[in-house]
């Protein structure tokens, strides 16, 4: 299945400072900002567009349960995940299964922008957090 880079997720400690850097210093545009308290997310998210490429800034809102908070405690701030757009998430999941690549099933969800997503198990991706996503409303 064909894949295309969708976005990079960056774990940050201070979203205001990160937004300022990405917009003022890198020339990006803030296209959305929202808070998600969904289990397994618990973050404030800012989406930055830089010449058609997207970056998600992720700041934990709960330092006890947020996976972003755990990531920062373990590895520090920085790149959290790489997301790939797949044409059909259901088909991509079947392909992963045939290859023996596991997912973090609890992470399967649809975000506020209609993007369906799931994270692959880092134990099967050489430690990298990889997101697969699709946009069902864009399918013909």
Automatic annotation (TrEMBL):
One of its GO terms (biological process) is L-methylmalonyl-CoA metabolic process. The keyword Metal-binding applies. Residues 4-135 form the VOC domain. InterPro entries: Glyas_Bleomycin-R_OHBP_Dase, MeMalonyl-CoA_epimerase, MMCE/EMCE_epimerase, VOC_core. Keywords: Metal-binding. One of its GO terms (molecular function) is metal ion binding. Pfam families: Glyoxalase_4. PROSITE patterns: VOC. Belongs to the methylmalonyl-CoA epimerase family. This is Glyoxalase domain protein. It comes from Halobacillus halophilus (strain ATCC 35676 / DSM 2266 / JCM 20832 / KCTC 3685 / LMG 17431 / NBRC 102448 / NCIMB 2269) (Sporosarcina halophila). The lineage of its organism: Bacteria, Bacillati, Bacillota, Bacilli, Bacillales.
